[in-house]
């Protein structure tokens, strides 16, 4: 049995101890985002702290958890820096092994909820920010959700995680999607590969509505070069239930909504669900923090994947990419 992690303040202090210049200026530390796995995974891969510095305002500190080492990919620091330089995310102020310090986004900035994304103007701004990101120079480090699914499935079996009885069927469906995507082809671009609402920061006007330039992208843990439609499909899978809403969002992003793009987004939504479902049930076993509802989150995402892969039109989506 693994030993529990040190207390939050001790973990942050230890991280700052590896950055003496920042440690010397620190006057106060507070938790910026309590970890939550269900209903959305937020602040579970890293501790998120707000650190006040002598003579200046606060900064935002992320310290990766040791039990999440494989959940933060090598491209994360570079991707975060590039997004900050593009004005799409907070600026990177400093970094060390497993730790990154970012410019703070104070209130009235707030993380997005799914309901926020169902507002047309908000979704349009989010899609515009992602279009700019995807149009930037590629990172040069690849990402593949199918490889991540295979790695998580192997890890789940190795740690005796409580796998669903139909896992082989879900993995077989993912293999069919992979083959269909490969046959149709795609161009790689700089992507976050993340559709989670809470990994978007929004700035609302005092009287309501989103401010101009009111979107920031704040999580690049899975960043890498891949098909931008995986990120769009994951986002639409998070935000929408109905076909008409998905089609409208695709048209906003691409200028038109073809059947092939709609099908690709639906399939990628199932892939994202399977990937995070396996992550949840595996981290329920491997994490040193048993109070976080990893298993509940994983079960919900697997149910969503199962529902999409069993849809009447699933074979049609595969055949018409």
Structure description:
The chain is α+β, with helices and mostly antiparallel strands. It has 12 helices and 10 strands. It starts with 7 loop residues before the first helix and ends with a helix. Helices cover 47% and strands 17% of the residues. The relative contact order is 0.14.
Question: What does this entry show, briefly?
Answer:
It contains 12 helices and 10 strands.
List keywords for this structure.
single chain, about 325 residues, alpha+beta, Phosphorylase Kinase, domain 1, Aminoglycoside 3'-phosphotransferase, Chain: A, domain 2, 2 domains, five-stranded antiparallel β-sheet, 12 helices, 10 strands, about 45% helix, about 15% strand, globular
Give the helices and strands, then pairings.
Elements: H1 8-17, H2 20-25, E1 26-31, E2 46-53, E3 58-64, H3 76-85, E4 92-96, E5 99-103, E6 109-111, H4 114-117, H5 120-134, H6 145-158, H7 167-184, E7 189-191, E8 200-204, E9 210-217, E10 224-226, H8 228-239, H9 243-254, H10 259-286, H11 294-309, H12 314-319
Antiparallel strand pairs: 1-2, 2-3, 3-5, 4-5, 6-8, 7-10, 8-9
Shape: globular
Q: What series of H and E elements makes up the topology?
A: HHEEEHEEEHHHHEEEEHHHHH
Strand order of the largest sheet: 1-2-3-5-4
Q: Report, as a whole number of angstroms, the end-to-end distance.
A: 47 Å
CATH architecture of the largest domain: Alpha-Beta Complex
The fold-level CATH name of the largest domain is Aminoglycoside 3'-phosphotransferase, Chain: A, domain 2
CATH superfamily of the largest domain: Aminoglycoside phosphotransferase (APH), C-terminal lobe
Sheet with the most strands, sense and barrel status: 5 strands, antiparallel
Number of structurally distinct domains: 2
Care to count the β-strands? 10
Q: Residue-averaged pLDDT, rounded?
A: 94
- Please write the CATH class name of the largest domain: Alpha Beta
**Structural class category:** alpha+beta
Give the helix level as a range of percent. Answer: 40-55%
Report strand %. Answer: 15-25%
Global Rg: 20 Å
Tell me which oligomeric state these chains represent.
single chain
Q: Which residue ranges are poorly predicted, with pLDDT under 50 across at least 5 consecutive positions?
A: none
Number of helices: 12
């Amino acid at each position: 049995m693994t030993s529990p992690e040190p207390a939050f303040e001790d973990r942050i202090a230890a991280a700052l101890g590896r950055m003496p210049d920042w440690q010397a200026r620190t006057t106060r530390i507070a938790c910026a985002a309590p970890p939550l796995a269900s209903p959305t995974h937020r602040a579970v891969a890293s501790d998120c702290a707000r650190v006040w510095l002598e003579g200046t305002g606060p900064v935002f500190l992320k310290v990766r958890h040791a039990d999440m080492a494989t959940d933060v990919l090598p491209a994360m620091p570079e991707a975060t820096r590039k997004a900050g330089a593009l004005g799409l995310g907070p600026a990177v102020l400093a970094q060390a092994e497993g730790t990154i310090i970012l410019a703070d986004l104070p209130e009235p900035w707030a993380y997005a909820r799914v309901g926020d994304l169902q507002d047309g103007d908000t979704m349009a701004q989010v899609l515009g920010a992602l279009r700019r990101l995807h149009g930037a120079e590629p990172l040069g480090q690849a990402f593949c959700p199918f490889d991540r699914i295979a790695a998580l499935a192997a890890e789940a079996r190795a740690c005796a995680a409580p796998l669903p009885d139909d896992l082989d069927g879900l993995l077989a469906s993912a293999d069919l999607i992979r083959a269909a995507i490969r046959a149709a082809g795609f161009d790689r671009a700089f992507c976050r590969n993340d559709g989670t609402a809470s990994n978007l920061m929004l700035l609302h006007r005092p009287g309501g509505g989103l401010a101009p330039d009111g979107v920031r992208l704040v999580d690049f843990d899975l960043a890498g070069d891949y098909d931008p439609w995986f990120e769009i499909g994951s986002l639409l899978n998070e935000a929408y239930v109905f076909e008409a809403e998905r089609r409208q969002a695709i048209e906003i992003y691409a200028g038109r909504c073809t059947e092939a793009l709609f099908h690709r987004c639906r399939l990628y939504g199932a892939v994202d669900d399977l990937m995070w479902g396996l992550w949840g049930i595996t981290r329920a076993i491997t994490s040193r923090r048993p109070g976080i509802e990893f298993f509940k989150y994983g079960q919900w995402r697997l149910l969503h994947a199962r529902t999409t892969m069993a849809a009447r039109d699933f074979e049609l989506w595969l055949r018409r990419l």
